[in-house]
Amino acid sequence: MKQLVEAIFACALLSLSGCVSYSNHELASVEQWPPAASKTNEPSAFINVNTQYLLNDQARAGGFNQTQLEALILKQYQSSGRFSSVTTNKQAADLYITIDISNHERSNLFSAVLTGLTLFVIPTRATNELTMETTFKDVDGKVLGRIKKQETITTWMQLLMVFALPFNESADNILTQLTQSTLEAAAQQKLI
Q1: With helix as H, strand as E and coil as C, how does 65-94 read?
Q2: What is the CATH number of the domain that holds 32?
Q3: pLDDT tens track for 57-90
Q4: Residue 35, number of CB atoms within 10 A of its CB
Q5: What domain range is 158 assigned to?
Q6: Rounded-to-integer distance, Cα 130 and Cα 127, Å
Q7: How many domains does the chain have?
Q8: Dihedral sign of CA atoms 179, 140, 92, 187 in order
């Protein structure tokens, strides 16, 4: 009976372990969304989204849900009001936009193992550097311009962080901010 109680207690501790993620606010906030309407004809655009996930400088599988990410980015491009049409389906367009997104996670393996062995009593920290590099090309494939934006998310993992879960920063919010900031810069540089 004592072993059963200990097992239930251990499972409860493991299920209560929490983490809190927050943005480092390196990215300047968007001044106006949607950007001011253009005075010229709005172009059509084809968007190609590529992703990469790195763990301590080593390429790994996973990282992003490609379908969800494309939908999130597509929604921001459509709501910008700067395009007559935007699609991720390959077709003829006035602008060809390639978006390369990388998630570079950095963490200490020893610290993570120590946190796990102590059932999340000793905390550990990881950082995720999200980088969005966007390349704008015309119909002929000529590069019109490139915009690179990045933001860092810090995540702390510890047993008592379960109480901070409602205050977690969503990666979707950060990706939305990166996309809006990119579109704002593209409008300022007259790329769109």
Answers
A1: CHHHHHHHHHHHHHHCCCCCEEECCCCCCC
A2: 3.30.160
A3: 888 887 788 889 999 999 999 988 888 889 888 8
A4: 19
A5: 2-188
A6: 10
A7: 1
A8: positive
